[in-house]
Structure formats: structure tokens, C-alpha cells
Amino acid sequence: MKVTRFKKACKRIYFYINNFNYRPPIQVLIDGTFCFAAIKNKFSIEDQLKSYLQLELRLLTTPCMIIESEKLGHKLHQVTQKLKSFNLNKCGHEKNPLAGSECIKTMVKDNHFIVATQDRDLQDWLRHQIGKALIYLHNVVPHLDEPSDASKKFVIRKSKATTRVSTFEDEQLMNIKKKEGLLKESSLVRIKNIKKKKKGGPNPLSCKKKKINIQTKIKKEKMKSKIKKKL
Ligand SMILES: [Zn+2]
């Protein structure tokens, strides 16, 4: 795998970890279309996906996706078996199963999943959501999709709001200090500290003195040696 591809994947997954509370083991919700592409391209979902994302993963599917695959008959037998090998995440549609894509849409609402799908419509839908990660295969190569514009804008708005809150908190703190007379005290401490720093600095005069002392020492030693020679 090329380093740039790895770096991109790493940067993207940490975007979700840092901003949308995704936590290892990262949950990957896999549908039949992704399984079909993986089997066709001899892509090992367990091993190759893990080495691509470099994180601990939990591979999941839902009853709806297994039922959908079973309905499509013997041709998708391998896909059904593959789906059954993953952890089963209950979706609440057991009595009235939904189409795989519709089931995923309900599942991602309140959960942090990376959705693994080749379904173009579902991919487009995910690309318009906030904080929903998408992974797909391009032949045998996995791609973690770039975070959606909606996700990026959400993060920018969130960081601006945090800055505003901290500014407001700072103002509140200043007001409390003023009321209790602590502000003057703290200002005085700051001034004292500045003065201390100035006091602690090197005194150019003392440096000069040291030089003179050394020179006089040398002169004295020379004199002593001359006297000794004369004796
Ligand atoms: Zn379901």
C-alpha cells in the first residue's frame, strides 16, 4: 500500500475519532454489496481492512441485510454466509425487515459506524450526512471516503462556538475578579514578577569587573614569576 494512501486513511479516520466520538474498536457496518465485491476481488475484509485502517475493528451486519441476501437466492449464497460470519447488530426490524440500505440509514442515526457499501445511492446519501464515515472498494483497493462537506462545516462551526464560549467565560471570570478586588492583586503580582525578572538579569558592570579581576590576576602571577626568576 502506498504511504500517501495510508496517510490519507489515517487522517480521515482520526477526523472522525477527534470530532465525532468514534472509538476503537471502530465499528464497521457491512452490507451485501460490499461482501459481494470483496468475494469477487478476493479481498479479505478481516485482514485487509484492518491493515488499511491500522485500528482495531469490529465487523458488524444486521438481520435485515442477511434476510435481503437470503431472498436473492442461491447465487448470493457465499455473500449470505460471509454476512453471517460477522457480529450481528440488532436493528429492531426483525418483525418487518427493511431493505439493507434503509436499515443502514436508521442504524447510523445514533451510532458511530463506518458503513462499508458499494451501493451508489447509499454512498450519496452518506456523503450528505454529518459525521458518517463511508468505506468502499475500488477493485481490490479499499477507500475511506473523504469526510463530507457537511461534516467539515459542522466541525468549523463547533470550534468557533467553543472559542466564543471560552471568551465569554474569560469575561465572566474578569468580572468576578473585579467585584472581589482580586484583579488588582493579580495585576500587582504580575508587576512584581516582571521586576523580579529584571533584577535577575545579568549586570553588565559586574561582567566587566570580572574581566578586570582576571586580568589583574594574570598580571600578579607574571609579576610573581619575574620576582622568582630574579631571586
Ligand atoms: Zn434492520
Automatic annotation (TrEMBL):
Ranges for domain UTP23 sensor motif region come to 195-211
Query: Known Gene3D superfamilies for this protein?
Result: 5'-nuclease
- Looking at the record's lineage, which domain of life comes first? Eukaryota
Coiled-coil ranges (or none): none
Q: In its keyword annotation, does this UniProt entry include Nucleus?
A: yes
Pfam families assigned: Fcf1, UTP23_sensor
Biological processes annotated in GO:
rRNA processing
Q: Which UniProt keywords apply?
A: Nucleus, Ribosome biogenesis, rRNA processing
Give the family this protein belongs to, as stated in its UniProt record: Belongs to the UTP23/FCF1 family. UTP23 subfamily.
What is the name listed in the Swiss-Prot or TrEMBL entry for this protein?
rRNA-processing protein UTP23 homolog
Source organism per UniProt:
Clunio marinus
